[in-house]
Amino acid sequence: MLKRLNKVLPELVAAIIIYGIAAWLVGIWLAGDKLMYSTGLFIGVCLAVGMAVHMAVVLEDAVSIGSSQSKLITMSLLRYAAVVLVFVCTVSFHLGDPIAAFIGVMGLKIAAYMQPFFHKLIMKLQGREEFSTENQNHEINNQIEEVRK
After folding, report:
1. pLDDT of 24
2. Could you tell me the end-to-end alpha-carbon distance of the chain, in angstroms, rounded to an integer?
3. What separation in angstroms does the CA of 104 have from each of 48, 58, 81?
4. Among 42, 10, 4, 12, which residue's Cα sits nearest to residue 115?
5. Rounded Cα–Cα distance for residues 148 and 17 (Å)
6. pLDDT for 113-148, tens place per residue?
7. Are 105 and 48 in contact (CB under 8 A)?
8. Are 85 and 29 in contact (CB under 8 A)?
9. Which one, of 26, 32, 33, lies nearest residue 104 by Cα?
10. Closest to 42 (Cα-Cα) out of 121, 5, 97
């Protein structure tokens, strides 16, 4: 399902989860209340994944059916309101550490910056190679030279 929405979305979600695991492994040693830290981080990572999926759905709708700018703004505000609501519930009901939840939500930003590196790593692990424009130009030039001979 994720790949139908956006080719990059599965890689983005995987990067958010890997970031969450790394943040948990580092933070668990520093946290005073390990359970609150873990649940807060889990809430933040789940929120980041949900935001990534929501953004992909909204972008797909905008591209395919030509949504208006006001709908895009409304969906962005809805996403921000959901983040605020989750943070208010986390603090009000003592569900987890709000700082850890914030660290988890930042996984979306970190994953977005790491995605190109993560994509290249996945391609290498799968044994596939992406062609850059330079490689394509070199390949085309070689084919032209072969035709001339």
Report:
1. 97
2. 49
3. 7, 22, 17
4. 12
5. 52
6. 988 888 888 888 888 766 555 555 556 666 666 666
7. yes
8. no
9. 26
10. 97
Which residue in the block uniquely carries the two structure tokens 């935001």? 51
CB within 8 A of 54, min separation 6: which ones?
75, 79
DSSP assignment of the chain? -HHHH-SSHHHHHHHHHHHHHHHHHHHHHH-SSHHHHHHHHHHHHHHHHHHHHHHHHHHHHHHHH---HHHHHHHHHHHHHHHHHHHHHHHHTT-S-HHHHHHHHTHHHHHHHHHHHHHHHHHHHHT--PPPHHHHHHHHHHHHHHHH-
Q: What is the pLDDT of residues 64-95, one digit of tens each?
A: 777 678 888 899 999 999 999 999 999 999 99
**CA 132 to CA 55: how far, in whole Å?**
27
Structure tokens at 66: 């030509």
**Which is more confidently placed, 5 or 27?**
27
Cβ atoms of 35 and 99 closer than 8 Å: no
pLDDT at 83: 96
